Input
Amino acid sequence: MEQIENFNYEELLEAFKALLKQNSLKFTSQREIILQTLYQNPHHFTPEDLYLLIKENHPDLTIGITTVYRTLNLLEENSLVTSLSFGINGKKFELSNKPHHDHLICQKCGKIIEFHDPKIEQLQEKIAKIHDFKLTHHLMQLYGICKKCQESENGENS
Amino acid sequence: MEQIENFNYEELLEAFKALLKQNSLKFTSQREIILQTLYQNPHHFTPEDLYLLIKENHPDLTIGITTVYRTLNLLEENSLVTSLSFGINGKKFELSNKPHHDHLICQKCGKIIEFHDPKIEQLQEKIAKIHDFKLTHHLMQLYGICKKCQESENGENS
DNA sequence: CTGTGTGCAAACATTTTGCAAGCAG
DNA sequence: CTGCTTGCAAAATGTTTGCACACAG
Output
């Protein structure tokens, strides 16, 4: 499994353009801004988050949420973004050009923390070996309540 | 895939009844059938899957999908079922009465091996602690190719 | 120029809510 | 009896599609 290394925006953009060319698709300003925005904000976005952020940062650009959906799907099909479904608040997207990591998710506020633990990965390999599996990838999501939400749980009484 | 069942239905049903009583809620046949169906079919259900299955197996019972949603939410809030989001479109639910385990999944033949590794769980707790999270549960799925499929990959040329 | 891309509105899909009647406790 | 529960219909969300015009290549 070849994990695309941390690239800079130029490289990412080139990859995107190459992808478009390969499929006889066109490079448009909407598509560029979507990619750029994903790059500049390394968070997890719902399509709507992304749409609103773009509208805010680029008041000049006309863009519809339809285009955001279509572009995210295009990017996902081509593995430039990854989508995760965290029970809370729908499906979220992030650029896949980051090094591998897993997620810690707050079930109350939806906050997401990324982490990476080489020891866990080692143990996963070991388990795979025991069962004679050749691992390709994995999915690990830890669900819980973040500090803030724990505090507000104690503090509030409705 | 062996199904681990160390709760029997009676216990589960009692837990459910206790829960209802505690909240001054009522024990209805719809709620019972939903729980029973989840118990008898240890798969992952979308609300609609479950609704259709119940309609099929209990043609006499009137039930609406609304009730399925409401009951699943009730069960989830009280940790009797867990919801997982696998890929596209759909939150899926399963009973949480199985002992905790994770999955090793063969991407070729679909074989699923359940495993449990206390060391990994420890490390997960540690990560949660670092980020001040109180863990509720987690999802870990390792994807790979099982021994048989690795062998047949070598042997066969389609 | 050609054919893809876009925004808009409408269509879909999924989940939640308001309501009047039904039933558990 | 009381008031929670139910199914239905309608509403609220979230996502996709049809279409005519815009524009990249």
